[in-house]
Every structure is written in structure tokens, then in C-alpha cells.
Specification:
By secondary structure, the protein is mainly α. It contains six helices and three strands; from the N terminus they run ααβααββαα. The chain is globular.
Length: 166
């Protein structure tokens, strides 16, 4: 298994075994998250991508364009428009003209619906935070760093897949 390693890191059968275990655990982790996301989306009557779009919109400082939603989700603008249509029908977002540039249409979340989503997440959230009680601050910081790197790598891999340069 030809893996890039940091200077001073062990190599050989122990490292290969650890990397194999990491590969298997990673696959289970990703599958468990995808299945959790599906179950939560089903519970809310949403598509899993729509749920994650709401998640990302909740991190934005204000209303966004459909083009921004396409960028956040990696969808085409046409697919992002259909996603916004679904979220609007479900009552989670509204569209309005930008007061500074009337050509732009802004998508904004409906606070009451996001609060309902927050309540559902709140009933689930405690168990997630309890899981982190077993870790020290340095370990949690390491996990956060890993997650940031994973987000960046995933974005580049999505781009790679969509560009056909596999």
C-alpha cells in the first residue's frame, strides 16, 4: 500500500493494518452519516440534498442567490433552482427581489420553519455532544481539523467527478 507518510512515521505491516482499518471505518462512517441524513430527511419530508442545503443556508449570514446555492451544494444552477422550488413549496425558504439589484432574486430561510428544524435537531443533538465528552480539547481540535480538511478534499473530489477528470 503506497501511502504518503510524514517523516518519522512508522511504515510496514503495522501501518498497513492501521490504514486498512481506517479505510473500513471511514466507509462505515460515511455510510452511517448518509443513512442518518436520509432518516432525518424522511422524518421531515425532505430530500436529503434539500436538508443539507438548509444546513448550509443556516450557516450563511443572510439571503443568497440560487447561484450561491449551486456553489454551496455543487449542483448545477438548474438543479439548484429545482431544489429551491422544493424548499419553497415545503415552506422553508422564500424568494424576493434584491433591493439593490432588481435583476437578482434572493433566497432566504423562513425563521419559523428553521426553528422547527432546530427543535428536531435539538432532540437528537445531545447524544452527539455527549459522545465528545470522552475526548480532551486537543483531540476535539484534531477532529475539527480533520473535518475541515475532509470538507476541502470532498469539494475538490466533487469537482473532479463533475469535470469527468477521474
Amino acid at each position: 500500500m503506497a501511502q504518503k507518510k510524514r517523516s518519522g512515521e512508522p511504515t510496514g505491516p503495522d501501518r498497513d493494518g492501521v490504514l486498512r482499518d481506517l479505510g473500513a471505518v471511514s466507509r462505515r462512517y460515511m455510510a452511517s452519516y448518509a443513512l442518518f441524513n436520509q432518516a432525518l430527511a424522511d422524518h421531515l419530508g425532505l430530500h436529503p440534498t434539500d436538508l443539507q442545503c438548509l444546513n448550509l443556508l443556516g450557516l450563511e449570514p443572510g439571503p443568497v442567490t440560487t447561484g450561491r446555492i449551486a456553489g454551496l451544494t455543487g449542483l448545477t444552477t438548474g438543479s439548484a433552482t429545482r431544489l429551491v422550488d422544493r424548499l419553497e413549496r415545503a415552506g422553508y425558504v422564500t424568494r424576493r427581489r434584491d433591493t439593490e439589484d432588481r435583476r437578482k432574486v434572493l433566497v432566504e430561510v423562513v425563521p419559523e420553519r428553521m426553528a422547527e428544524l432546530g427543535k428536531v435537531w435539538g432532540r437528537l443533538n445531545g447524544a452527539w455532544w455527549e459522545m465528545f465528552d470522552a475526548y480532551g480539547d486537543e483531540e476535539i481540535a484534531f477532529i475539527a481539523t480533520h473535518m475541515r480538511r475532509t470538507v476541502d478534499l470532498s469539494a475538490s473530489q466533487v469537482e473532479r467527478l463533475r469535470s469527468g477528470k477521474l
